[in-house]
Specification:
four-stranded antiparallel sheet, about 130 residues, seven-stranded mixed sheet, mainly beta, about 50% strand
Length: about 130
Amino acid sequence: QVHVVESGGGLVQAGGSLRLFCAASGRTFSSYAMGWFRQAPGKERELVTAISKSRSSSYYAHSVRGRFTIGRDSAKNTVYLKMNSLKPEDTAVYYCAATNWGGTYYYTRASEYHYWGQGTQVTVSS
């Protein structure tokens, strides 16, 4: 069992940057493949980015490619999402998720993730 907590959300102007953090308790994040999802009001939850357990592969949604970066800080047992060149359409609640599925794969469906954080709000003003 792992408890997931996100932090780092907030209000930023378009073009600005934010870094979200995902901390784990119970087990080390290196035991899991990870993902960041987001959900805007009235929209379905969507995958933003995912990284494999081995860190050998990662995925980015087309809408964030080149602007967002997912990474791991093993010393702090955290996963981060670095977001640059933010746009108003990036406004959403962002969720960190971990899956028990391992290997060199990343996972793109919410149903494949077993542990979820409570979410952190990101608001980008125009």
